[in-house]
Amino acid sequence: MRKFPLLMIFAVMALHGAASAHDRQDRQANVERQTRFGKVVGIDDSDSSGTYAWKGIPFAKAPVGALRWKTPVDPDRWQKARKTQQFGNACVQYGRIYGPGANNRFDPTIGTTLNQAVGSEDCLYLNIWTPADPRGGDRDKDRHDRDRHDHGRDDDAKGGLPVIVFVHGGSNVSGYTADPVYDGAALARTANAVVVSVNYRLGIFGFLNVAQLKSGVDLQE
Q1: I need a labelling partner for 187 at 20 to 30 A (CA). Which of 8, 23, 45, 194 fits?
Q2: How far apart are CA 89 and CA 60, in angstroms?
Q3: How far apart are CA 21 and CA 17, in angstroms?
Q4: What is the per-residue pLDDT for 26?
Q5: SS3 for the chain, per residue?
Q6: Is 59 exposed, middle or buried (0-12, 13-18, 19+ CB in 10 A)?
Q7: 111-155: per-residue pLDDT in tens?
């Protein structure tokens, strides 16, 4: 008689473990996407923000060495699924009150890095947020169902969601997509849209205009 309750407990634990594993697989499937350069695995934040997110996706090779002053070139393809769950580096800049500080995020180090070099030249990354429920939630379910009945296909078949691309400010010398004020989750959810934010080279690395850098040869007087 004493063994039966123990067996029941073990059975429940086993079922809970199987359910948890199944839930993890479902969540990973929600955020796996295939890109031109390889598969990416993002974040299922549907319970908290109602969105899926992919952060730190490289859209170009690191613009260093021979690529420092050149137009961005495609990144190399990756063979294994790439975790895109953290923001990429902020582009190199001098610290200002707008961050990014020493840790690529809004934190107390911002106050200690004013006028000091922060960020990295390896910074050409973008971030994507999409609503977890592209129909707009339960409140729009009836409308969506009517649309499907009228047109015989869902939103994806009609061309998908609109895309909003956000380019951060900073006078071309500062700024970074990991600033919490630029988080795209709320916009993606409320606008029922795909939100993309991008890093770009700043200061002399992005805006120095010298003829020799374009031609690769010395000017003749």
Answers
A1: 23
A2: 13
A3: 6
A4: 63
A5: CCHHHHHHHHHHHHHHHHHHHHHHHHHHHHCEEEECCEEEECEEECCCCCEEEEEEEECCCCCCHHHCCCCCCCCCCCCCCEECECCCCCECEEEECCECCCCCCCCHHHHHCECCEECECCCCEEEEEEECCCCCCHHHHHHHHHHHHHHCCCCHHHCCCCEEEEECCCCCCCCCCCCHHHCCHHHHHHHCCEEEEECCCCHHHHHCCCHHHHHCCCCCC
A6: middle
A7: 899 999 999 999 999 999 999 998 765 444 444 444 444 444 344
Instruction: Please state the φ and ψ torsions of residue 82, each to the nearest 5 degrees.
Output: -100, 125
Amino acid letter for position 148: R
Q: Which residues pair with 58 in a beta bridge?
A: 125
The pTM for the full model equals 0.77
Per-residue tokens: 177: 């997509």
